[in-house]
């Protein structure tokens, strides 16, 4: 039997109030477990070099030191980039406020209007160049060097005035209440203003609560339609697609393999289900486990799982090399992870997709698509275009190519 989950501080705040209280520099994480808003810096988590447990070991040391110093509620929050040498921004906040996931009776939140100004848009790379990259990847797959690789492209949008970060986060959070809404400060040396990673991710990398571990990989996607009949047809096509089912199996099998090395029990569905966001339909598998060693925290689990084939590929080393060779821009925090872990090892980490990095007047948005045998370059361009819509709608920009 699983041991009971440790007692948490009782939520004391209204979820809408916490969203309204967010300011750039704060950390916000909203999920079915509730809303968390963290402010101030008690101490930072060193960036490396990592030990065998990766950033989970450094976080555990920081949490123990914060508790010894009298911190009443130590927790590590922040974000980690995609690449092995990518930047990460992790710290123990000075103050953490929580709100219950139960929104019954919660005060309504005003939906701010989009900025409404003219935006300059730069494609990185152009859609036709991205399609050529897909063809290159398909050649590697045909040669047997890869089974899958996820290729991303970016849009860099520049506004005449500074971007209202809190308004953008609020619009993202309210547009899709089921998504994992997040914001983390990722300011780097040389930035002209604070830099914020924010988004509304549909994908849980991993959570731990007591002995219970949950991962929910997504792979295999199709754009959502405004027409209900067309949506039913698209869902049926996604379920019947051998290409999408094979792509999803690569991801789910890898997650199960990693968790079996860390859990006493692992349970995975035989077939994926279809879940929807405001812009996409995805094949989804909710995989559960029971932790074998309580010293293995949520961040240890996230480090072990990252990157899943949902954002990288199979095999991982070859896929990472292909991404580095084909993608013209460094991903930064896109397709990395963001979340939190507490002193008991509980926590929640989500995949940083449907996300953007905002700095002063610039918003940098990424979207990716999984390339496997049978992928069509034009269809992959269309998939990335559909995935951009989550952020573009929040910004108030019409769809771009």
From TrEMBL:
Top-level taxon in the UniProt lineage: Bacteria
InterPro entries: ADC_synthase, Chorismate_C, IsoChor_synthase
Top EC class for this record: isomerase
Assigned protein family: Belongs to the isochorismate synthase family.
Entry-linked PANTHER family: ISOCHORISMATE SYNTHASE ENTC (PTHR42839:SF2)
Presence of the UniProt keyword Isomerase in the record: yes
UniProt protein name: isochorismate synthase
NCBIfam families cross-referenced by the UniProt entry: isochor_syn
SUPFAM superfamilies per the UniProt record, alphabetical: ADC synthase
EC number: 5.4.4.2
Taxonomic source organism: Pseudonocardia tropica
Reaction(s) catalysed by this chain's protein: chorismate = isochorismate
One Gene Ontology MF term: isochorismate synthase activity
Keywords: Isomerase
Any Pfam family the entry gives: Chorismate_bind
Chain ranges of the Chorismate-utilising enzyme C-terminal domain: 128-387
């Amino acid at each position: 039997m699983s041991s009971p989950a440790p007692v948490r501080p009782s939520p004391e705040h209204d979820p809408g109030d916490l969203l309204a209280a967010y300011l750039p520099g704060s950390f916000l994480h909203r999920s079915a477990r509730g809303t968390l808003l963290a402010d101030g810096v008690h101490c930072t988590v060193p960036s490396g070099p990592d030990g065998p447990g990766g950033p989970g070991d450094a976080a555990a040391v920081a949490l123990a030191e914060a508790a010894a110093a009298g911190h009443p509620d130590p927790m590590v929050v922040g974000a980690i980039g995609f690449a092995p040498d990518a930047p990460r921004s992790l710290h123990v906040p000075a103050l953490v406020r929580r709100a219950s996931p139960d929104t019954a009776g919660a005060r309504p939140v005003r939906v701010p209007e989009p900025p409404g100004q003219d935006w300059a848009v730069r494609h990185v790379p152009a859609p036709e160049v991205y399609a050529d990259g897909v063809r290159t990847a398909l050649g590697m797959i045909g040669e047997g060097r890869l089974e899958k690789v996820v290729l991303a492209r970016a849009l860099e949008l520049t506004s005449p005035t500074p971007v209202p970060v809190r308004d953008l986060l609020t619009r993202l959070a309210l547009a899709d209440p089921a998504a994992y809404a997040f914001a983390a400060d990722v300011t780097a040396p040389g930035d002209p203003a604070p830099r914020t990673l924010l988004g509304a991710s549909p994908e849980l990398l991993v959570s731990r609560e007591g002995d219970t571990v949950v991962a929910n990989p997504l792979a295999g996607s199709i754009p959502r339609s405004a027409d209900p009949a067309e949506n039913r047809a698209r869902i049926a096509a996604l379920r019947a697609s051998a290409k999408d089912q094979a792509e999803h199996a690569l991801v789910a099998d890898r997650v199960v393999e990693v968790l079996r090395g860390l859990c006493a029990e692992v349970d995975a569905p035989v077939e994926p289900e279809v879940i929807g966001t405001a812009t996409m339909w995805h094949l989804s598998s909710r995989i559960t486990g029971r932790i074998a060693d309580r010293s293995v925290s949520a961040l240890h689990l996230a480090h072990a799982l990252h990157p899943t084939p949902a954002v990288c590929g199979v095999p991982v080393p070859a896929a990472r090399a292909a991404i580095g060779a084909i993608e013209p821009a460094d991903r930064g925090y896109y397709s990395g992870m963001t979340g939190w872990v507490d002193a008991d090892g509980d926590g929640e980490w989500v995949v940083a997709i449907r996300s953007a990095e905002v700095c002063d007047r610039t918003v940098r948005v990424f979207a990716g698509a999984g390339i496997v045998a049978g992928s069509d370059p034009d269809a992959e361009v269309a998939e990335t275009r559909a995935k951009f819509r989550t952020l573009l709608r929040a910004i108030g920009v019409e769809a771009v190519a």
